[in-house]
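Severity: low
Component: inverse-folding endpoint
Summary: output formatting inconsistent between runs
Steps to reproduce: submit the following structure tokens with default settings.
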């Protein structure tokens, strides 16, 4: 009789992380005891992915044995084709999406009003077993609704048994919470589908859809690429944009309307990176917007007019497709280095606002001006980065020559343009009042009056406030150094009232030089977490226009109590250096709060004349000379260390009077040694951050508070210890700073345009007859960018950039950034080869911009 051998399964490790064949959890019994429940789990190799015709053997066997259904169309859509050549996606959802977005999920099975089927975006939704179990545990009604979606006859949704599949099964790790374990299990499903679908030639790609920021972060760390960022539309080409993704570390090129997917400049979008074989180079062609009718007109238009609009729209689409194909062919044959290229697959957050527009009269039939009914027409935004907006109004006749404010409402997936509505009229086009207000609105510059709550934060003494006598030891003197006897002065542009900084220098007994930079102590008046602080954080910066200034702080502070005016005592934050006078090496440095009394307020010209006057031997003049000698040495050391001087010409516009609407002259600002003097010491004080302009930059206010905490003057405010709060504030500050710069440049361009028109008229010519010899204003310009059909130039005499376009395409060398302009195109005697930084001669006039409806500067080659 043979012996009976009892074979036992080897004792498994006590660590659950090493045993996928069983699961365990703990539960409390009725008696209150906690017991461990262990269940055996059988893992299978035949759990199918659900994609029709999947070549992987495990999936083929599962379908053959009828263990799974082919619910995901192999080509991405049920009719076997992919709409407009777009990519189809298999979307894996997590528990947060199932629990919080059920209405959205249900809507994706059918058509929404005004929208196309969601299958054009996602070919299928995969619901992992982990998600089903968590939803059932937390909400039975939601679980029933989710099950109904999975079991619907026409559904292409897949129930994936990830806990039973050997490729995706997971075990809870020691110290891992149930929620973290569930998230990890879902990520393993996403990774499985990603690698699984890579083996297929069909255009399917796996996407993990999650509402959980931590889950997204861990998914990225696990290698699941997630790309998103702000969409930036090109200012030169309406068919091109870019998205800069922190995850990729560089900009992703977006080419074509379909790839843009209804994204508008400033939106935060999710992007799918195309395979490297489909990457393109940046376009070498200027492409403006088209001017077709689209779907505009009154409700009473006849069918013939509507058919004409449809024909024009189809023609526009055809022209854009041809332009896009031409650009892509050139990009591929140019030999340039391809740039990461992608497509917008979703808008994460709309950053829409109200836009300044003019009404496009070309989209209106003659009957619209006398019609009393609502009329549909297109509004042209002032910014070329924003698409035209369709609005309906009964006020066509009164608004056709007005600047108007239009708000965006929606952008239907079936529409060429977004829908919006009329908000208010700003005034007649080319009137100074309307142009100035539209400029502020277009660049999102807040110009509302300060609220009562903000004004209540000001000192009750108003203009009469002053630093209390030192003998009284008031709160203003706490831990401050008395520097009132120092020979301190300020050096600023003419007319400056918000004086942020002042300087001094003197020779010490040991032969070294003491130099000081004294910055207005704004943080003394603007306390953290007050209405004034919130308003300053919202405004971010002071905005300087040609004829006005939009202050970050109320006038009382900016131009009086904080301003370091001469002959009055003011509170300051000082940086004091001891330097070697021969080498400008720093011996020591200290920071402290102070009380100063500036002796003089000079302009750059006045300080230069004083420094150069050999008869001047007074202490303040000697201080300026010491500062200048040190500044020359400091700049020399910076340049020797590899610093790059990016100084750009600035212009000053002279008006007839403060109330004048006509500029009489434009001149380039002269740079003197004293300009460099102030610049060097501001750089020395800043070095790593902003510090020197707290009256006009909120970032500097934050730095003052941090520095005060660093020198133990006062504790750091609680909100500055919150990284999320600081990031939010600084994102807004950066946005306001860009807007302020753009508004300032636009203001200069507007006034320079008026001056150019006036100068051409005074010279007996016309500002609009290009190529006829009537343009009398000629200037040198520098090429700053080249295209196949144009060049961008910079005219330093006016501080202006201009775009010169050619009627025909020219030979473009993308490697050398040069363009050959035939004589037949330029109208000159011989061909021209133009490259970056080449000097050219241009005629400068003005023309009426179709978007802004105001005169703008136009240039042409001579």
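Observed output (run 2 of 3):
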């Amino acid at each position: 009789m043979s012996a009976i051998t009892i074979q036992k399964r080897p004792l498994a490790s006590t660590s659950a992380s090493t045993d996928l064949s069983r699961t365990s959890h703990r539960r409390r019994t009725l008696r209150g005891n906690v017991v461990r429940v262990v269940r055996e789990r059988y893992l299978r190799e035949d759990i199918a992915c659900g994609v029709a015709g999947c070549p992987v053997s495990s999936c083929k066997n599962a379908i053959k044995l009828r263990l799974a259904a082919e619910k995901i169309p192999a080509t991405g859509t049920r009719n076997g084709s992919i709409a407009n050549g777009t990519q189809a996606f298999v979307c894996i959802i997590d528990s947060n999406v199932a629990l919080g977005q059920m209405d959205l999920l249900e809507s994706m099975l059918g058509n929404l009003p005004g929208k196309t089927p969601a299958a054009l975006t996602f070919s299928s939704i995969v619901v992992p077993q982990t998600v089903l179990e968590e939803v059932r545990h937390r909400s039975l009604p939601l679980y029933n609704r989710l099950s109904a979606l999975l079991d619907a006859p026409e559904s292409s949704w897949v129930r994936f048994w990830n806990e039973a599949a050997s490729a995706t099964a997971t075990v809870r790790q020691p110290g891992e919470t149930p929620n973290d374990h569930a998230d990890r299990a879902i990520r393993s499903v996403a990774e499985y589908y990603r690698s699984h679908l890579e083996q297929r030639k069909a255009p399917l790609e796996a996407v993990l859809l999650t509402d959980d920021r931590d889950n997204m972060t861990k998914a990225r760390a696990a290698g699941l690429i997630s790309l998103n960022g702000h969409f930036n539309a090109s200012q030169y080409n309406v068919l091109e944009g870019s998205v800069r993704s922190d995850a990729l570390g560089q900009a992703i090129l977006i080419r074509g309307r379909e790839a843009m997917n209804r994204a508008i400049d400033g939106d935060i979008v999710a992007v799918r990176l195309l395979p490297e074989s489909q990457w393109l180079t940046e376009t070498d062609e200027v492409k403006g917007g088209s001017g077709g009718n689209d779907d505009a007109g009154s409700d009473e238009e006849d069918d013939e007019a509507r058919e004409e609009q449809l024909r024009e729209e189809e023609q526009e689409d055809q022209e854009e497709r041809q332009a896009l194909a031409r650009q892509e062919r050139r990009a591929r044959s140019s030999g340039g280095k391809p740039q990461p290229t992608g497509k917008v697959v979703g808008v994460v957050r709309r950053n829409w606002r109200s836009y300044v527009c003019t009404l496009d009269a070309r989209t209106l039939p003659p009957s619209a001006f006398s019609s009393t009914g609502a009329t549909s027409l297109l509004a042209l935004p002032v910014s070329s980065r924003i698409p035209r907006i369709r609005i309906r109004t009964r006020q066509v006749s009164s608004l056709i020559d007005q600047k108007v404010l239009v708000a965006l409402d929606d952008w239907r997936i079936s529409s060429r343009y977004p829908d919006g509505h009329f908000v208010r009229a700003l005034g007649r086009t080319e009137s100074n009042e309307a142009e100035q207000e539209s400029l502020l609105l277009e660049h999102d510059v807040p110009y509302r009056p300060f609220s009562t709550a903000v004004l209540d934060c000001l000192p009750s003494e108003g203009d009469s406030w002053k630093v209390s006598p030192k003998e009284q030891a008031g709160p203003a003197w706490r831990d401050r150094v008395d520097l009132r006897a120092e020979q301190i002065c300020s050096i600023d542009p003419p007319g400056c009232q918000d004086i942020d900084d002042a300087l001094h220098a003197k020779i010490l007994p040991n032969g070294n030089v003491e130099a000081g930079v004294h910055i207005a102590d704004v943080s003394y008046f603007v306390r953290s977490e007050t209405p004034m602080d919130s308003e300053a954080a919202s405004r971010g910066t002071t905005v300087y226009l040609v004829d006005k200034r939009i202050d970050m702080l109320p006038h009382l502070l900016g131009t009086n109590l904080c301003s370091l005016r001469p002959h009055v005592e003011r509170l300051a934050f000082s940086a004091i250096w001891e330097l070697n006078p021969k080498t400008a090496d720093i011996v020591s440095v200290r920071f402290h709060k102070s009380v100063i009394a500036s002796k003089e307020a000079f302009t750059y010209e006045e300080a230069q004349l004083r420094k150069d006057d050999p008869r001047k031997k007074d202490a303040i003049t000697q201080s300026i000379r010491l500062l200048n000698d040190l500044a020359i040495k400091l700049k020399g050391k910076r340049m020797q260390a590899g610093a790059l001087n990016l100084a750009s010409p600035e212009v000053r516009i002279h008006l007839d009077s403060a109330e004048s609407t006509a500029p009489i002259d434009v001149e380039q600002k002269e740079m003197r040694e004293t300009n460099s003097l102030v610049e060097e010491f501001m750089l020395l004080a800043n070095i790593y951050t902003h510090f020197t302009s707290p009256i006009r930059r909120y970032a500097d206010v934050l730095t003052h508070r941090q520095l005060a905490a660093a020198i133990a003057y006062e504790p750091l405010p609680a909100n500055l210890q919150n990284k999320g709060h600081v990031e939010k504030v600084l994102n807004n500050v950066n946005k306001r700073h860009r807007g302020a710069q753009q508004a300032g440049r636009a203001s200069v361009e507007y006034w320079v345009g008026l001056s150019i028109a006036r100068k051409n008229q005074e010279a007996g010519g016309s500002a609009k007859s290009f190529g006829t010899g009537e343009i009398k204003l000629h200037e040198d310009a520098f090429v700053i960018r080249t295209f196949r059909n144009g060049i961008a130039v910079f005219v330093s005499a006016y501080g202006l950039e201009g775009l010169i376009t050619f009627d025909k395409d020219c030979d473009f060398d993308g490697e050398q950034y040069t363009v050959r302009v035939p004589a037949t195109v330029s109208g000159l005697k011989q061909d021209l080869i133009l490259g970056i930084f080449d000097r050219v001669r241009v005629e400068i006039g003005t023309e009426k911009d179709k978007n802004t409806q105001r005169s703008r500067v136009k240039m042409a080659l001579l």
